[in-house]
Amino acid sequence: MEPTPQGERMRFHRMDEMSPDDFRLLRTVHEQNLLQLPDLLLDLLERLGGDEAYPVDRRTHSLQAATRALRDGRDEETVVVALLHDVGEALGPLNHGEVIAAILKPFIREENHWMLAHHPVFQTYFYGSQVGIDPNGREAYRESPHFAYTAEFCALYDEVSFDPDYPQEPIETFIPMVRRVLRRPWDTPAPEPETRGGELN
Description:
The protein is mainly alpha-helical. The chain has one domain (33-182): Orthogonal Bundle (Hypothetical protein af1432). Helix content is 53%, strand content 0%. It is built from seven helices and no strands. It has helices at 20-47, 58-71, 76-84, 96-104, 110-131, 147-158, 171-182. The protein is globular.
């Protein structure tokens, strides 16, 4: 991808006036933004650090979730999804699952997109009865083909990853994975996960 030439600017004042040269430059800008996306998301992950209200801060929680997925032998996309599943909290505290699902949709498989969007309600299964929330809210999605996948993801990687004594991998382990998954061309289907047995493959 060629960098945007210094000082080059699109000329239109209305989008229905865009010329081929404008479209060419617009595509270059979009491609540059896509290349910056991994760093933007990793920066949002860093912003989840330092919250002392949780047993571990949310950055550590995310690292623990990704570490558990990695040590279970999950495919790289699933490990990255585990790492970034709560990044949306920095932008949309009331709908963080939908936020990160929308951002990652062009890069990930349908089951991971669905899981990200719905994991907050699936998480209430583990704590809802303690705080006056229906723990069975996830039952509204029982007929989804991704129900079992999402329930298992939450059980194995999300709800258990608040352990101050768990030896998680450092962020450096995951940065190359994030870059590979997010640099996948947005118009190319994601590869199928490896067959290994179990719901998450």
